[in-house]
Amino acid sequence: MGKSSRKLAGLIVGLLLASVVSAAGRVELNPSHPDRYTVVKGDTLWGIAGRFLREPWLWPEIWHVNPQIKNPHLIYPGDTLVLTYADGRPILSLVRGSYEVKLSPEIRSTPLASAIPAIPVDAVQQFLSRPYVVGRGELADAPYIVAHADEHVIGGAGNRIYVRAIRTDEHTRFDVVRPGPAYRDAETGAFLGYQALYIGEAELQRTGDPATLELLRTTQETREGDRLIPVSDAQPLVTFFPKAPDQQVRGSIIGVLGGITEIGQFNVVALDRGAEAGLAPGDVLAIESRGETIKDTVTHSRHKRVTLPDEQAGHLMVFRTFPRVSFALVMDAIRAIHVRDRVHNP
What we know:
Number of helices: 2
Radius of gyration: 24 Å
Strand content: 25-35%
Structural class: mainly beta
Number of strands: 19
Low-confidence stretches: 1-24, 99-112
Mean pLDDT: 84
Number of domains: 3
Distance between the termini: 38 Å
Shape: flat
Helix content: under 10%
Largest sheet: 7 strands, antiparallel
Order of helices and strands: HEHEEEEEEEEEEEEEEEEEE
């Protein structure tokens, strides 16, 4: 790294630390926090931060940078975290072998496989690149299944499909998707996009109109009319930096993914706010259950109804954004969570 680059990096780090110090007054330690903790396999940054802090998403505010150690932003099983104080501020240090290092508050998208993740990645793995959220007409011109080979009415892994129309071999792998329900703003009803349900993956065998493809894997049977989207070569972000959003965000849960009906910890939900509202992967939001509207049985009025206040229900972390919709993982839940519950800055 050149001298000017080091100066620039030092300036950026200084600005980061200055913002951390200005916000550190709101950091509260977990009353039962340890003075030191040794990381074990299966830990997550969120879980470790919860051992030391009341609010785990504030963990970067007590961790710092030590550029002398390779990959100090990564934590591995066997590392020991030590809590100390400087000028009354809590500081979390990392002891690795003979080195004591400070943790870096940076986003990294390509960590070593053995480093612990920020969240349980298994809970979101299938949603990192699929399913999709698409706009009106976005699938209208996409290739589609016109028939299945060997007189099959539906298709599964190992079957061949005929698709209109794939005329070049620019892409050889395709996701098979099916237009799903519309996502709408919970308050205004405004259209936000369609969920494109992931059905399977297919490989191109012969170009043409129709083209021939083989289904490599499926989550359910393919049908005529299912659309094909080229598989992206981009690697999805798998390491996140939990933090509060950079701007005020207020929205609602508008869907739940994964075929479940009750929402709890480590379930994936859809929000009616996305990148256009300033959300980014790693942003943490508080969840409030909407107060139920009930009949007042005490009053003499036959039509008197009252809406109970919203109640804190938990927290979630955004892991994937689209322009007007986001997918998020519920990190903790202290009561039942429902579609249309509100979300906002923690």
